[in-house]
Amino acid sequence: MPWPPDRGGIVRLVTCQQGSKEWIAARVGVCTASMFRTARSRKKGSSERTEAALDYAFRLAVEILSGEALDDNFETWAMRRGHELEPDARIAHQADIGVYVQPVGMVLSDDGRFGASADGWIGDDGGAEYKCLVSPAELRTTLIGHDLAKYMDQVQGNLWLSGRRYWDFGIYCPAMKAIGKDFFRWRIQRDEEYIEAMVADLLEFDSLVQDNVAELRKLAA
Question: Where is the YqaJ viral recombinase domain (predicted)?
């Protein structure tokens, strides 16, 4: 497996605040864990990648060539809300587990092609991911159905890049303070088989990105 070569730790860490100019710059041309699911997506009943995956590969190729974010400082309302609520989510998480959760930044593979915005470190072996969901459908499937499949690529992607053993996946929902429970947590262990399959798929996706880079260079020749 390309990264990390062992559990020796992170290859590269960019210390920055999520949403900052430094954070945006660190993500340029990088396939990030939050997009691993999109990058791996296939058409139903087919081995062909979805249009969303193809568009993402092309976007990364443009960013690699330009050195700039294609969408610049674009931030959805949900993204902005998540960044604003992350400190509160971390405080709630710390109260839940009784230990300090250290803010991180961007974790990158040795070649800089893959990365993850880790929401926090827990000691030497753990990490954290927070979602501040407002969608009734997403809240219902996670809180009532305990269905975390949608987030597994991101969580295992963080575990892959960081070399850590477990990841706390947390849902922070201030509206639930009405019942005295605004933070919900699942501790997810590192799954080597899952990671191996995911990495193989991501490397195929990266080949597509590099093909796009080559094709775009031809346009300028």
Answer: 22-164
